[in-house]
């Protein structure tokens, strides 16, 4: 009998849901859903397991699709998670209820947080990535223009330096000829070197003055003096030899012994040869040697000696970085490659931010999951939790008491309407309106941020497009020169100059046309898909703010379907609690109004009285505080009492103004015939 009563009670307070089920579902499905737990045990087990498998697969995809895992680990974790969900779906109605509560929870604040992350993801894939791409394109355009300028500078520099490079190259190629010329000069100069540095023309045993010399000039002067002395001595010696020869010839020609000595005596005057010694002072004083002969000979000898060695030519190129041109401390790599590396580092940071968003998506889905389980737990443990709805069973209790001529609650008094929510009404309750306004404020702030970011992207795209259209440049590089230098003569210096300076005899013409068309930036505008990725989640968030009211009501319906006995206790508790409030309602209102009293006239009352004289009557109900327009307000007729009531509150108070009734004249029995506390069964 108890089970039958419980079953009937369950049927009573899910009548609306049962009516919808009977109208939508087939008869066997309807009977299965609203049957007792002892009926259809096998079907309940397998359908519960199937429900657990499907819900487990969906929950696993929502939780782990953004988590980086290997395929094997993902498969093992998926099997384990689905297996646990199958067990929960087969044996636990609490689990099935919590899974269904996920769907209305998605329309709440956690669902909006999930969509907010989708908005951030759309912003990253849309305007943020587009701004990064356009800025990168403009930076590459600047780098391309700089490289183009460098290329043109290289062409012009090469055109200027080409003659000099030809001279150097000619010297390198004529290395063999220069060596032959140098050896020929060295051979020809050897006779001069022998004459200057040789030790002939004087007695080598008498080198005292020569050894005393410190320089080539002194040595050559000493050698010249000694050679001069030697010439004088040789002249004297030859003169004497001549006298000897002539004496012998004379003696041979004259055979007479005495006569030949007399006649040939003049051939014995060889002492006359000593007169030539008068030339020695001239050799010492007036020697014909220039003052800078030694220094000139040393330099010429050193040059000829260096020239006689192996002649070699090398081209050495020295690169010098011009920091003032590039504005950087070092330019070891290509400018565009440096920009690419910098933007790649930025892209890595953005990709890490994207990975963080994906991880937060999984964490947000976990909060939705825990929120659903938390609602089911509080629903079954806290009888006051979310117990503010006038349900079908609440109405049935009130109708039964009304038919039994007992105290009933419906319709609610005006002051009580703010405490309850009618789940059948589409209007939003004031307590629900706070959640809606908070959610809309969050959506509006996010929408402002999205609009600002899209506006920045649009402005940058417009600026970059102006740069693209107005920075097109054509370059024209022209150059022409003709050089003809003739060097005459057959000397070594003439040949050397002919080999070197003659290389400047070149002619060239340069005419190069180019443009920076390939360097112009190509800014990209956002597509319709990018805008949809940004605005569709925002519109869904705004819609969810409005639907959150009804999804919160739906949570109670789902919990009541799985826990009908608990729903009965909650409805009975709420009805009894409100009966107790209703019993003390008159007393509480009387106490409040008597504490308020008629009061003294304030500045506001004076202003209102003046407005009344002008025909503008403003009245507020003393009980519910609602403004009463026109003559709808019920005013107390007692002189000096300024209390006003709305018609319904006036009826609820039994048409008695407690603001001016003395306490001694008020009888609680008159205003409330039933003051005892009792419990409705």
UniProtKB/TrEMBL annotation:
Its main location: membrane. Residues 385-575 form the Dendritic cell-specific transmembrane protein-like domain. Residues 619-662 form the E3 ubiquitin-protein ligase DCST1-like C-terminal domain. Keywords: Membrane, Transmembrane, Transmembrane helix. One of its GO terms (cellular component) is membrane. The chain crosses the membrane at residues 42-64, 76-95, 101-124, 353-376, 435-460, 531-550. It is a multi-pass membrane protein. It is found in: Membrane. PANTHER family: DENDRITIC CELL-SPECIFIC TRANSMEMBRANE PROTEIN, E3 UBIQUITIN-PROTEIN LIGASE DCST1. This is Uncharacterized protein. It comes from Oncorhynchus mykiss.
């Amino acid at each position: 009998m108890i089970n039958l009563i419980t079953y009937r009670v369950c049927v009573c307070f899910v009548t609306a849901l049962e009516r919808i089920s009977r109208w939508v579902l087939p008869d066997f499905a309807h009977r299965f859903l609203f049957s007792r737990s002892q009926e259809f045990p096998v079907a309940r087990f397998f359908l519960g397991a199937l429900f657990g498998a499907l819900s487990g697969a969906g929950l696993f995809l929502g939780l782990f699709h953004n988590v980086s895992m290997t395929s094997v680990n993902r498969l093992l974790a998926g099997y384990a998670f689905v297996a646990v969900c199958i067990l929960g779906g087969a044996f636990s109605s609490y689990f099935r209820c919590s899974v269904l509560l996920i769907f209305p929870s998605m329309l709440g604040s956690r669902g909006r947080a999930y969509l907010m992350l989708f908005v951030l993801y759309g912003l990253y894939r849309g305007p943020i990535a587009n701004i990064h791409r356009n800025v990168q394109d403009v930076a590459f355009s600047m780098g391309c223009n700089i490289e183009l300028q460098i290329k043109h500078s290289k062409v012009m520099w090469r055109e200027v330096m080409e003659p000099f490079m030809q001279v150097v190259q000619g010297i390198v190629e004529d290395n063999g000829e220069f060596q032959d010329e140098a050896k020929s000069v060295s051979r020809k100069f050897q006779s001069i070197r022998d004459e200057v540095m040789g030790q002939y023309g004087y007695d080598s045993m008498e080198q005292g003055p020569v050894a005393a010399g410190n320089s080539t000039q002194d040595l050559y002067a000493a050698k010249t003096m000694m050679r001069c002395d030697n010439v004088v001595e040789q002249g004297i010696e030859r003169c004497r030899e001549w006298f000897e020869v002539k004496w012998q010839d004379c003696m041979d020609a004259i055979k007479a012994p005495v006569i030949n000595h007399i006649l040939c005596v003049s051939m014995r005057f060889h002492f006359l040869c000593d007169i030539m010694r008068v030339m020695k002072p001239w050799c010492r004083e007036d020697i014909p040697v220039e003052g800078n002969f030694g220094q000139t000979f040393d330099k010429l000898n050193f040059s000829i000696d260096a020239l006689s060695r192996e002649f070699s030519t090398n081209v050495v190129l020295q690169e010098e970085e011009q920091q003032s041109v590039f504005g950087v401390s070092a330019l070891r790599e290509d400018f565009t490659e440096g920009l690419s590396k910098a933007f790649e580092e930025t892209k890595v940071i953005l990709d890490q931010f994207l990975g963080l968003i994906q991880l937060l998506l999984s964490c947000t889905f976990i909060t939705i999951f825990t929120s659903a389980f938390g609602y089911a737990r509080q629903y079954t443990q806290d009888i006051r939790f979310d117990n503010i709805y006038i349900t079908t069973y609440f109405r049935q209790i009130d109708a039964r008491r009304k038919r039994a001529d007992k105290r009933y609650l419906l319709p609610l008094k005006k002051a009580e309407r703010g405490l309850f929510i009618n789940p059948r009404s589409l209007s939003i309750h004031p307590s629900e309106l706070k959640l809606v306004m908070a959610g809309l404020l969050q959506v509006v702030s996010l929408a402002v941020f999205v609009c600002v970011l899209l506006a920045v992207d649009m402005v940058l795209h417009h600026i970059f497009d102006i740069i693209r259209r107005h920075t097109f440049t054509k370059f024209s590089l022209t150059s022409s020169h003709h050089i003809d230098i003739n060097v005459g003569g057959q000397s070594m210096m003439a040949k050397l100059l002919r080999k070197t300076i003659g290389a400047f005899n070149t002619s060239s013409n340069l005419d190069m046309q180019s443009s920076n068309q390939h360097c112009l930036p190509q800014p990209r505008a956002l597509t319709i898909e990018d805008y949809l990725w940004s605005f569709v989640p925002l519109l869904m968030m705004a819609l969810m703010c409005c639907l959150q009211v009804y999804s919160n009501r739906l949570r109670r319906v789902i919990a009541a379907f799985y826990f009908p006995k608990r729903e009965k206790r909650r409805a009975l508790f709420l009805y009894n609690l409100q009966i107790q409030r209703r019993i003390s309602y008159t007393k509480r209102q009387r106490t409040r109004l008597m504490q308020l009293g008629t009061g003294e006239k304030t500045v506001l009352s004076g202003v209102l009285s003046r407005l009344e004289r002008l025909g503008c009557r403003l009245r507020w109900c003393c009980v519910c505080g609602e403004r009463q327009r026109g003559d709808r307000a019920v005013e107390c007729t007692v002189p000096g009492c300024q209390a006003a009531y709305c018609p319904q509150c006036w009826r609820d108070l039994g048409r008695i103004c407690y603001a001016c009734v003395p306490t001694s004249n008020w009888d609680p029995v008159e205003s409330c015939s039933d003051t005892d506390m009792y419990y409705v069964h």
